[in-house]
Design goal:
With 284 residues, the chain is an alpha+beta fold. It has three domains: 51 residues, no CATH class; 117 residues, 2-Layer Sandwich (Tetrahydropterin Synthase, Chain A); 56 residues. 46% of the residues lie in helices and 22% in strands. The strands form four sheets. Strands 8, 9, 10 and 11 form a four-stranded antiparallel sheet that branches. A hairpin with a 7-residue loop joins strand 3 and strand 4. Helix 3 crosses helix 5. It starts with a helix and ends in a 30-residue tail after the last helix.
């Protein structure tokens, strides 16, 4: 009786110890084989989506290799003092991931199997949190408060380059470090607002001056045109030219059937003269 019972127990243990470790998409599985007596041993890596197959005492620790965002707030007591001694608040985002081909190193040197689903963020924070925080503070403190907003892109680029060099020989791959949501103290914000208002007013006045200058140039051109036209007309208004124009006008009226023309040859060569006569004086 004892022998069949022992066989049954061993068979049951074999069935319960056999597993089919699977790894979903976006993860790399770290496979280990356990032992009834002794330590577990490393088996290999598997990239999801996949499964290892039914195996004796084999288990998997799945590590996400998709990008994560690590956020650091610099506000309140953590605000940064700028070069001109003003406190500014902002937020830094670091986009990173675990390199798929270095998951073994990540599990064995940067985390533990029992750290749970947030293992990547925890491990990254443990490794880079303080150095990155110090580097960000120094980068921002290098500038005065007012030019800081104009140099956010430059600061982010330099921090990204620094973080990539820092993690070059680690399982972590930093893709981007972005500094944003910059906030000045109330007094500085008001000063910035006043400066912008003054700048806009100056730009408006400069535009108005330019419009007035263009308008003055236009009037000068018009006046020059009128002066030239007057000069040309004065040069043409000779007695012979006026007589010619008068004769042409008379010829045009003669050909018109709608009115009668009476010629009063009182001028030279029979051309009528037009003049203003003084008003008659009433006799008392």
């Amino acid at each position: 009786m004892r022998k069949p019972l022992l066989v049954a127990v061993l068979s049951l243990l074999s069935l319960t110890a056999c597993k089919n470790p699977s790894t979903p998409a976006g993860y790399v599985g770290y496979l280990t084989r356990g032992a009834i007596v002794g330590k577990a041993s490393y088996v290999g890596l598997q990239t999801g989506p996949t499964s290892f197959g039914l195996s004796w005492l084999v288990s998997v620790m799945n590590v996400s290799v998709t990008p994560f965002s690590y956020q650091e707030d610099f506000s309140g007591e953590n605000a940064v003092l700028t070069k001109d001694k003003l406190m500014v608040s902002f937020r830094a985002h670091t986009i990173f991931r675990v390199r798929g081909d270095r998951v073994k190193e990540f599990v064995e040197q940067y985390t533990t199997i029992g750290e749970g689903p947030n293992q990547v963020q925890v491990a990254f924070g443990n490794y880079l949190k303080e150095p990155l925080r110090t580097e960000i503070r120094e980068a921002v403190a290098h500038f005065d408060a007012f030019p800081l907003n104009e140099n956010i892109g430059r600061i982010s680029t330099e921090l990204t380059r620094w973080a990539q060099e820092k993690t070059r020989d680690t399982p972590f791959e930093v893709m981007n470090v972005v500094v944003g949501n910059l906030q000045y103290p109330a007094v500085v914000a008001q000063a910035v607002s006043n400066k912008l208002a003054v700048t806009q007013d100056l730009e408006t006045r400069a535009t108005q001056v330019e419009i007035a200058r263009k308008d003055a140039e236009r009037r000068v051109v018009e006046a020059e045109g009128i002066a030239k036209a007057t000069q040309i007309i004065q040069q043409r208004l000779t007695p012979l030219y006026i007589q010619h124009e008068a004769i042409e006008a008379q010829k045009a009226m003669v050909g018109s059937p709608n009115h009668s023309v009476i010629y009063i040859p009182v001028g030279p060569m029979g051309v009528p003269l037009v003049s203003t006569l003084p008003a008659p004086v009433e006799k008392r």
